[in-house]
Specification:
single chain; five-stranded mixed sheet; 13 helices; 26% strand; Dna Ligase, domain 1; alpha/beta; binds adenosine-5'-triphosphate; globular; Nucleotidyltransferase, domain 5; binds magnesium ion
Amino acid sequence: MQNALKRLLNQRVSTIGLEIGTSMIKVVELRPGSPPALVRSVSAPTPPGSVKEGALVEPQLVAQEIRNLLTAQHIKARFVVTALPNQSAITRNISVPRVDRKDLDGAVRWEAERYIPYPIDEVVLDYDLLDEPAGLPQDSPIEIVIAAAPQEVIARQVEAIRLAGLEPLIIDLKPFAALRAVYAAQKSPEPHLTSESDVAVILEIGASGTSITLVRGQRVLMTRNITVSADDFTVAIQRGYNLSFAEAEEVKTRYATVSSQTESEEDLLNFDADRERYATARLYELTRPVLSDLINEVRRSLEFYRVQSGEVILSRMLITGGGAKLRGLPGALSDALGMKVELAHPLSALSVDPNHPDTELANQLGEALAVPIGLALRGMDRLD
Ligand SMILES: Nc1ncnc2c1ncn2[C@@H]1O[C@H](COP(=O)(O)OP(=O)(O)OP(=O)(O)O)[C@@H](O)[C@H]1O
Ligand SMILES: [Mg+2]
């Protein structure tokens, strides 16, 4: 009875997933169901300079932009799940000695301190158990995942959201949100990316922040930040052609490819002056060093995991974030890393009405919606 009542009350509450990205503000509203249904999906370019390297430097400006977006799109939902920028969030799997539940907070804080590059009194620290201690041998340590961020970063995020007239419910981390969307997009009733012995890799490539996450079944093994992101490809093109950043973005999304193939048939048919100026081969040459850096950092992360954990079978990589849409990227990563690499298709986690006015844009954004979809899905969990 109580549950039924709770559900009834909760149903009035609709939650939105909001990502304040360096390049784009993205809002996703979902309705519970299996799968959850896409109610709204809207976005706006982040005002230039207001978010730098993921950090909110102009909360007022960002808040105003969010408010404008919600008003223009008649979005009434007020409860928000959002995420911190990767650059100021720390997450790590750690083990703590077996202690009573009541002493766990203290033990985690003590252990976590050495992994957190900020004074422990100035961070918000959260954690989750990776295993149920009851199922483990008496004296084995407890594996937990910690998440921490400076209080000041969180306060700023909350401030921007409140200034936009919204109420923050949960502040998540982007790699976890992306992972949730990727799992949900697997469609099976028990979403597993791999068998219990293999490891899958999720690479979330944002404009300024990239994360790599290793999972086995439903268990997160490792999450790390990677310092190469989609903006770096833009900057390489900007420098090579002496363009503004905005012009270089346009050139990147229209013409760039990071696979070594020469002109495709489609390119040859659509031949024009710009196409000649921004030739595939030249763009490939300009972006190749960035691609190499990205690949090297991914390799280093995988190596780091191998050193800690011994030989692992990496079965597949799923890529998300707007940066995953760079032409030729799955193939280039697959060739370099020797594993299957696919786009994650986060929208397939949802039931989407093809005639809805937001659908076309949602399809265009595609991979870039992984984080806001994952955030909105977290809001759904509350309704269980
Ligand atoms: N079709 C495309 N081809 C190549 N790059 C693309 C394409 N579409 C989007 N991008 C790139 O994706 C990036 C934006 O991705 P996304 O929206 O995930 O970033 P963000 O969430 O704003 O940034 P962050 O999370 O790092 O703060 C931009 O660098 C953009 O150029
Ligand atoms: Mg992002």
